[in-house]
Structure formats: C-alpha cells, structure tokens
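Feature request disguised as a bug report, sorry. It would help if multi-protein outputs had a clear separator. Right now it looks like this:
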Amino acid sequence: MLKCLKDLDCIHVERLLLLKGKQAGLSDHEILILLLIYTLSRLNKQLITPSLLMNYSSLSNKELDQVLDHLLKKKWIYNQSGTIRLNHFIERLLEEKEEVADRMNLLEIFEEQFGRPLTPMELDIIKEWINQGFEEDMILKALKEAVKSQVLTLRYIDGILNNWQRNGMKERFIEEKPKERKVAESHYQWWKDE
C-alpha cells in the first residue's frame, strides 16, 4: 500500500518532513538538508555529494559536515559509493514516533548521567538491551545502581542486567522512606483517679 502511495505521489513528503521533523528528533538544519537531498533525488540528480549540497545551502562546510554526520548517525542517510542516499525516508516519516521519543528520553538520561554524548556503539548496546526484552524501567534502575556504585560503564550495567535476568532483580541501594517514629499512645485518664 505504501509503495503504491509513493509511486502515485499521493504523499506530500516535503510537508510531512516539515511538520513531523521535530517529532522525529531532527533539527532545523537536518530537516533542510534532508529536504534538499529529497528534492535533488526527485530531480534525478545521480551524484548527490556534500559539494553539490553546498551549492544550494547557506551552511558553512563545517556546519554541513556536522549535519551530515548527525544524519548518518541517526540513519536518515547513507553513503553509497560517495553519493548521499536517503535511508527508508518516507517510511520513517510515516511511522509513529512515540516509541522513539521514549527511547530518546532513555538516551538523554544516559547522556546526562555519563556527562557526555553516547557513541554510536553505546547507542547500539542500549538498543540491543531493548531488543533483548529488558524493560526501560529495569535499564534505568541498572543505570541508577551503576551511578550509586560510581562505575559508569555500559559493561557494568550489562552485567547488572544479566545478573538480574538470571537471579531476579536485587537492588543494593534501595531507596526507602524513613520510618515514621511512632510514639506510644497513652490511654491513662489522670483526671479520673482523684
């Protein structure tokens, strides 16, 4: 069905990209470059290179390189023999992004705790945990255990998750509410003893 809609030009991709770009986690510059690549490919430009994109963009070389690098890491584009190609572009715009937004929150928490952006390899490890069936809450609790143990490595977190999977979930640092101090209640009625 989707292929039929694409072939018949029933989908206004440019409008879809502009309206859903933010929801898909794209910056304005990334949306502009994707729009430019899509337009050039629709005009049957066979060789879309960074130098060709520079002709139609007001971005500097450095800015364009950063945008292209981000799009490669997010897997919106790929390099095919020196030519920039879109990677399942329309399909990704049409799919619902609620799950991706939740994962982005998970990734943001990891980056905040690590104090740096995650590498693509680290992103793949976290995605693999989700694919293995680990709940996001469980991953966050394992991260919390690693932070409290002051061992911020994905290998350590992976060990925690695997131990929990084998032996059941056990937290070393359980947050407990302080117990309320109860004062014994006296039912002595001193006024009646007189």
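(second protein starts here, but nothing in the output says so)
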Amino acid sequence: MAHDTGLFSGRPSELIGRQVAGYRIEREIGRGGMAVVYRARDLRLERTVALKLLAPELARNDTFRLRFTHESRAAAAIDHPHIVPVFEAGETDGILYIAMRYVEGSDLRHLLDRRGPLAPAAVLRIAAQIASALDAAHEHGLVHRDVKPGNILVARGTDSDHPEHAYLTDFGLTKKSLSLTGFTSVGQFVGTLDYVAPEQIAGRPVDGRCDVYGLACVVYECLTGRPPFRRDDDMALLWAHQYDQPPPPTELRPDLPPESDAVLTKALAKNPEDRHPSCRAFTTALRNTTTEAPPPEHPPTEVDLHLPNTAARPEQPPRWAAPVFRDGG
C-alpha cells in the first residue's frame, strides 16, 4: 500500500477490497479527524475484525510512534469482558493500525438518539459494566479520557438476567500521545465537550477520577435525556464544566430516587478529590439509591443490531463508537 492512501481524502472506497497488514478491507464503519475504521477480514485467522487506520502524519512523529506502541501493548494486555479486545497493533507502509474485535450491537449514542432516556434499571446495568472496565484499565495505568455514549457499545446479553452486554471501546491509545507530541496545542485537550472533566479543560494532570466524571455525565444523560450542561457555544460549555452546577436529575426526571441527586453531584464534583474514588464506587452508590427491583413495565434495553450505514450518510459524521459496531448491510 502506498504512503498516500487517500484515507482522509474523502474517497474511502479506494481501499475497499485492498489488503492492509494481512487484513482485507470490506467497508468503512467510522471516521474521525485522525483515523478511519473499517470492517475487515483477518486473512490469517479467517475472522472479521475492526481495523483502525491512523492518519499518516502520526506515523511520521517518532515520539508518537513510541507512545502508540507502548499504549497499544498496555491496552492489549487487559483481559476484561467489557473492554473490546485489541488483537494487534503495528505499522505497515507508513500507516499505524489497530485490529480489534468486531462486536455486533449498537452504540449507546444511537440508543439515546432513538429512544431517549433509558429505564433506570438498564442504566444501572450498563453503567456497572462500563465502570468495571474503566477501573480495570486504571489498575493497568490507563485512563480513557473520552468516556461518552459513542464509545460504549451495547450488544445482546446472555439471558433475561443479563439482557445487555456493554463494551468500552476507543481506548486512549492515541489521546495522551497526541497531547504530548504537538498534535494538540497548549491549553487544548483531547475529549468530547459534553463529557470532559474540568481538570482536562484546565490542562491539569488526570487520573482515573477524570473517567468517573465522564461516566457520571453519560449516566446523567441516560437518565434524563440530556447531558449535565447545555450551552449556546463551546466556550460557555467549557466554563460550565469548570464552574457551574448541573440541574439535579430529579428536576428533569421526577421518578428518580431523590438520593440519586447527591450521588451524581458527588461524581460531577469540580475537584477530583471530592468525587467517588473509583467508577465502581460511583455506580454502587447509585445502585444503593434504589430499594427494589424495577417493575415489569421497564423492559430491558432493546439493542438494534441493524444500524444504518454511517458511511452512506456523509452529512452525519460517524461517531467514535464506530470502531466496533455493526451498522447494517
């Protein structure tokens, strides 16, 4: 494959059918500013994978390449049922790539857009699974930095007691490296505005409590149908994360337990020291606000396994849950 692959030229079809590092590309399933993700066939093991190809300029930065290799190995070493496994990461013809498990399911962003707020019981089930994934990553020294609905996949579970199986994806294989190698300038951060922690905005050091904040933002939106802060422009939104208090969730959804307000307020504290010490501590505290099992009228979260092809709708940029969800076709 030549160095000028056209990955970011707006002509992704040029790679369809081509082989990259032992993978035959089948179709594009996601795209961002610095990477494109394809569904591909592993020709050695005869399995379908999600193949993420990074922008060529990243491979030309020696510092980034070293950090990419280190972080990819660290992520691949995590064996956790709620983290999308990384099969392989490397470089071929001047392009860095990551091969991951291809998961059939829907991203949480799509579910929220289609269905609005979810049943509290479903939110607790999904949040607990993602919390366990995040804490496992933190134990390996990895911070996700971009927890958001688009990076949470929801597949069908195994039985009625486990109706969903949630996966955390798009782990921070490049986020920290980008911030340390000049691809983001001083004062910027890598993350998504609706879910970014105050310390990320301020450029301060981050640890696992940054992901507690991001997960709390996701849970808040799952319960209320909107993220904690809504503002007219990006700067106002960044200011709100640093200095404003979000509306109590029960103001937006009165059927929630009153105690849930205090739990989410703590998880969304501006100072990391004031938050729950771990993601599981947060979800456990939230679960303890409910005193009984959900009534039958709250069904399990429905998982749409036949999503529309995002590549066929260029007017809607693909979201970065795209690395590993099936979008139809």
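Even a blank line would do. Unrelated, but nice: Strands lie at 19-20, 23-31, 35-42, 47-54, 86-92, 95-101, 106-107, 152-159, 162-168.
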